[in-house]
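Take a sample.
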Amino acid sequence: MSAADRLAAGDKEHEAMKAPAALAHYEAIVTADAKNYEALWKAAREAVDVAEYMKEQKARMALFQKAELYARRAVEANKDDAEGHFHMARALGRTALTMGTKDRVRLAGDIRAHALEALKLNPSHPGALHVMGMWNAEIMRLNGVSRFMAKNFLGGQIFGSANWTDAVKYMEKSRDNDSARIIHRLDLARIYADVGNTVNARAEYQNVITMTATDFNDRQYKAEAAAEMKKLK
Protein backbone atom coordinates (compact mmCIF):
# COMPACT_ATOMS: atom_id res chain seq x y z
CA MET A 1 0.00 0.00 0.00
CA SER A 2 1.38 3.41 -0.96
CA ALA A 3 1.82 6.23 1.54
CA ALA A 4 -1.07 8.09 -0.08
CA ASP A 5 -3.30 5.04 0.24
CA ARG A 6 -2.21 4.51 3.85
CA LEU A 7 -2.95 8.14 4.64
CA ALA A 8 -6.40 7.89 3.10
CA ALA A 9 -7.06 4.68 5.03
CA GLY A 10 -5.96 6.31 8.26
CA ASP A 11 -8.18 9.29 7.61
CA LYS A 12 -11.14 6.97 6.94
CA GLU A 13 -10.58 5.17 10.24
CA HIS A 14 -10.24 8.50 12.04
CA GLU A 15 -13.57 9.69 10.65
CA ALA A 16 -15.10 6.38 11.78
CA MET A 17 -13.80 7.06 15.32
CA LYS A 18 -11.47 4.05 15.17
CA ALA A 19 -8.35 5.69 16.57
CA PRO A 20 -6.25 2.52 17.10
CA ALA A 21 -6.75 1.48 13.47
CA ALA A 22 -6.01 5.01 12.24
CA LEU A 23 -2.85 5.12 14.36
CA ALA A 24 -1.63 1.85 12.83
CA HIS A 25 -1.91 3.30 9.33
CA TYR A 26 -0.11 6.54 10.20
CA GLU A 27 2.63 4.65 12.05
CA ALA A 28 3.17 2.43 9.02
CA ILE A 29 3.83 5.56 6.97
CA VAL A 30 6.31 7.11 9.41
CA THR A 31 8.12 3.81 9.76
CA ALA A 32 8.87 3.98 6.04
CA ASP A 33 9.26 7.76 5.88
CA ALA A 34 10.37 9.33 9.15
CA LYS A 35 9.81 12.87 7.82
CA ASN A 36 6.27 12.52 6.49
CA TYR A 37 4.79 15.59 8.15
CA GLU A 38 1.10 14.83 7.76
CA ALA A 39 1.45 11.25 8.95
CA LEU A 40 3.53 12.40 11.93
CA TRP A 41 1.07 14.94 13.31
CA LYS A 42 -1.86 12.64 12.65
CA ALA A 43 -0.05 9.79 14.45
CA ALA A 44 0.47 12.15 17.41
CA ARG A 45 -3.23 13.02 17.38
CA GLU A 46 -4.39 9.40 17.39
CA ALA A 47 -1.85 8.33 20.01
CA VAL A 48 -3.17 10.93 22.45
CA ASP A 49 -6.75 9.92 21.72
CA VAL A 50 -6.03 6.22 22.31
CA ALA A 51 -4.03 6.89 25.47
CA GLU A 52 -6.47 9.25 27.15
CA TYR A 53 -8.68 6.65 28.83
CA MET A 54 -6.28 3.71 28.98
CA LYS A 55 -6.46 2.12 32.43
CA GLU A 56 -2.92 0.72 32.54
CA GLN A 57 -0.73 3.64 33.61
CA LYS A 58 2.57 2.50 32.08
CA ALA A 59 0.99 1.80 28.71
CA ARG A 60 -0.81 5.12 28.85
CA MET A 61 2.35 7.08 29.60
CA ALA A 62 4.27 5.20 26.91
CA LEU A 63 1.66 6.19 24.34
CA PHE A 64 1.71 9.83 25.46
CA GLN A 65 5.49 9.76 25.08
CA LYS A 66 5.12 8.28 21.62
CA ALA A 67 2.68 11.07 20.73
CA GLU A 68 5.21 13.62 21.93
CA LEU A 69 7.91 11.99 19.80
CA TYR A 70 5.74 12.02 16.69
CA ALA A 71 4.76 15.66 17.28
CA ARG A 72 8.35 16.70 17.87
CA ARG A 73 9.39 15.04 14.61
CA ALA A 74 6.48 16.77 12.86
CA VAL A 75 7.71 20.17 14.06
CA GLU A 76 11.20 19.29 12.88
CA ALA A 77 9.81 18.29 9.48
CA ASN A 78 7.76 21.47 9.08
CA LYS A 79 8.13 24.19 11.71
CA ASP A 80 6.01 26.62 9.69
CA ASP A 81 2.67 24.85 10.00
CA ALA A 82 0.34 25.09 12.98
CA GLU A 83 -0.63 21.40 13.26
CA GLY A 84 2.75 20.15 14.42
CA HIS A 85 3.03 22.80 17.11
CA PHE A 86 -0.54 22.22 18.27
CA HIS A 87 -0.11 18.48 18.59
CA MET A 88 3.18 19.00 20.42
CA ALA A 89 1.39 21.26 22.91
CA ARG A 90 -1.49 18.80 23.18
CA ALA A 91 0.74 15.78 23.82
CA LEU A 92 2.74 17.65 26.45
CA GLY A 93 -0.45 18.95 28.02
CA ARG A 94 -1.98 15.49 28.36
CA THR A 95 1.25 14.22 29.89
CA ALA A 96 1.33 17.14 32.32
CA LEU A 97 -2.16 16.34 33.62
CA THR A 98 -0.83 13.00 34.89
CA MET A 99 2.02 14.62 36.84
CA GLY A 100 2.60 16.48 40.06
CA THR A 101 3.08 20.23 40.38
CA LYS A 102 6.85 20.26 39.87
CA ASP A 103 6.68 18.33 36.60
CA ARG A 104 3.74 20.42 35.40
CA VAL A 105 5.86 23.51 35.95
CA ARG A 106 8.66 21.92 33.96
CA LEU A 107 6.37 21.35 30.98
CA ALA A 108 4.27 24.52 31.23
CA GLY A 109 6.64 26.73 29.28
CA ASP A 110 6.92 24.35 26.33
CA ILE A 111 3.16 23.77 26.22
CA ARG A 112 2.49 27.49 26.11
CA ALA A 113 5.27 28.17 23.59
CA HIS A 114 4.03 25.59 21.09
CA ALA A 115 0.40 26.67 21.47
CA LEU A 116 1.32 30.31 20.89
CA GLU A 117 3.46 29.36 17.89
CA ALA A 118 0.49 27.50 16.41
CA LEU A 119 -1.66 30.59 16.95
CA LYS A 120 1.00 32.77 15.35
CA LEU A 121 0.80 30.57 12.26
CA ASN A 122 -3.01 30.20 12.43
CA PRO A 123 -4.68 32.69 14.81
CA SER A 124 -8.03 30.90 14.61
CA HIS A 125 -6.72 27.37 15.24
CA PRO A 126 -9.37 25.83 17.55
CA GLY A 127 -7.03 23.29 19.08
CA ALA A 128 -4.33 25.80 19.96
CA LEU A 129 -6.94 28.14 21.42
CA HIS A 130 -8.19 25.19 23.48
CA VAL A 131 -4.69 24.46 24.77
CA MET A 132 -4.28 28.07 25.87
CA GLY A 133 -7.64 27.98 27.61
CA MET A 134 -6.67 24.83 29.44
CA TRP A 135 -3.18 26.16 30.20
CA ASN A 136 -4.69 29.09 32.08
CA ALA A 137 -7.36 26.95 33.74
CA GLU A 138 -5.06 24.20 34.96
CA ILE A 139 -2.67 26.68 36.52
CA MET A 140 -5.54 28.50 38.22
CA ARG A 141 -6.86 25.16 39.51
CA LEU A 142 -3.68 24.65 41.50
CA ASN A 143 -4.12 25.75 45.08
CA GLY A 144 -2.61 29.07 46.08
CA VAL A 145 0.37 27.52 47.83
CA SER A 146 1.24 25.37 44.82
CA ARG A 147 1.01 28.37 42.47
CA PHE A 148 3.19 30.44 44.80
CA MET A 149 5.80 27.69 45.04
CA ALA A 150 5.75 27.16 41.29
CA LYS A 151 6.12 30.84 40.53
CA ASN A 152 8.77 31.68 43.11
CA PHE A 153 10.81 28.54 43.76
CA LEU A 154 10.38 26.08 40.90
CA GLY A 155 11.28 28.33 38.00
CA GLY A 156 7.70 28.77 36.90
CA GLN A 157 7.49 32.57 36.77
CA ILE A 158 5.36 32.23 33.64
CA PHE A 159 2.62 30.86 35.90
CA GLY A 160 2.03 34.43 37.05
CA SER A 161 0.42 35.27 33.71
CA ALA A 162 -2.37 32.70 34.11
CA ASN A 163 -5.86 33.94 34.89
CA TRP A 164 -9.49 32.86 34.65
CA THR A 165 -10.40 35.66 32.22
CA ASP A 166 -8.00 34.29 29.61
CA ALA A 167 -9.11 30.73 30.33
CA VAL A 168 -12.69 31.68 29.45
CA LYS A 169 -11.70 33.86 26.50
CA TYR A 170 -9.50 31.28 24.80
CA MET A 171 -11.97 28.45 25.33
CA GLU A 172 -14.90 30.47 24.03
CA LYS A 173 -12.91 31.25 20.89
CA SER A 174 -12.06 27.57 20.53
CA ARG A 175 -15.74 26.64 20.74
CA ASP A 176 -16.78 29.39 18.35
CA ASN A 177 -14.19 28.36 15.74
CA ASP A 178 -15.10 24.65 15.91
CA SER A 179 -18.59 24.52 17.36
CA ALA A 180 -19.30 20.89 16.42
CA ARG A 181 -16.41 19.48 18.48
CA ILE A 182 -17.57 18.17 21.82
CA ILE A 183 -14.34 18.54 23.78
CA HIS A 184 -14.27 22.32 23.33
CA ARG A 185 -17.72 22.63 24.87
CA LEU A 186 -17.00 20.17 27.67
CA ASP A 187 -13.86 21.94 28.84
CA LEU A 188 -15.61 25.31 28.48
CA ALA A 189 -18.44 24.03 30.69
CA ARG A 190 -15.87 23.02 33.31
CA ILE A 191 -14.23 26.44 33.21
CA TYR A 192 -17.61 28.17 33.50
CA ALA A 193 -18.28 25.98 36.55
CA ASP A 194 -14.89 26.94 38.00
CA VAL A 195 -15.67 30.65 37.76
CA GLY A 196 -19.18 30.25 39.15
CA ASN A 197 -21.09 30.78 35.90
CA THR A 198 -23.42 27.84 36.43
CA VAL A 199 -25.98 29.02 33.86
CA ASN A 200 -23.49 28.88 31.00
CA ALA A 201 -21.89 25.74 32.41
CA ARG A 202 -25.22 23.94 32.41
CA ALA A 203 -25.96 25.11 28.86
CA GLU A 204 -22.64 23.77 27.56
CA TYR A 205 -22.98 20.49 29.44
CA GLN A 206 -26.41 20.09 27.88
CA ASN A 207 -24.97 20.80 24.45
CA VAL A 208 -22.38 18.07 24.96
CA ILE A 209 -25.03 15.57 26.07
CA THR A 210 -27.21 16.18 23.01
CA MET A 211 -24.50 16.55 20.36
CA THR A 212 -23.53 13.78 17.95
CA ALA A 213 -20.28 11.97 18.74
CA THR A 214 -17.69 12.56 16.02
CA ASP A 215 -14.36 11.85 17.78
CA PHE A 216 -12.93 8.70 19.35
CA ASN A 217 -13.48 9.76 22.97
CA ASP A 218 -16.73 11.67 22.52
CA ARG A 219 -18.92 9.00 24.12
CA GLN A 220 -16.79 9.19 27.24
CA TYR A 221 -16.97 12.99 27.19
CA LYS A 222 -20.75 12.86 26.90
CA ALA A 223 -20.99 10.54 29.91
CA GLU A 224 -18.74 12.84 31.94
CA ALA A 225 -20.85 15.85 30.97
CA ALA A 226 -24.02 14.16 32.22
CA ALA A 227 -22.39 13.22 35.53
CA GLU A 228 -20.84 16.63 36.07
CA MET A 229 -24.01 18.55 35.25
CA LYS A 230 -25.82 16.69 38.04
CA LYS A 231 -23.25 18.04 40.52
CA LEU A 232 -23.74 21.68 39.55
CA LYS A 233 -25.22 23.77 42.33
